[in-house]
Every structure is written in C-alpha cells, then in structure tokens.
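Example record for the data management plan.
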Amino acid sequence: MEGYIRLGLGIVVLVMIIIILYRFNSGKSNWRQSSLEIMKKRYEKGEITKEEYEKARKKQGK
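Corresponding structural encoding:
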C-alpha cells in the first residue's frame, strides 16, 4: 500500500514539474523578438519615423 502512495506522489510531482517547465519555456518565446520586430512595433506606435524604420530594415538586410 505504501508503495502505491509513493508511486502516485511521484507521478504527481513529475507532472507538476513538466507543467512548470512547459509554461516557463512557452513564456520565453514572447521575450525573444528580433530588433526589426521591435522597430516595427515602435513605428506602428509612432515612436520612430518611417525613415528610421526603413534604415533599420535596410541594416538588417530585409
């Protein structure tokens, strides 16, 4: 009986660790933005001019 309890707790802990790691890794993708994406958002907000955005785009080679 004690073995089943330990096995059950072990599975619960393992599932919790997997969920935490999945959420941690999926959240990181939002932090990784290219400089061009950042410049595009700043241009859309009106923080930079079209010339500055085009200059950054040319610098990236896109």
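Summary line stored alongside the record: The helical segments are 2-28, 35-45, 50-60.
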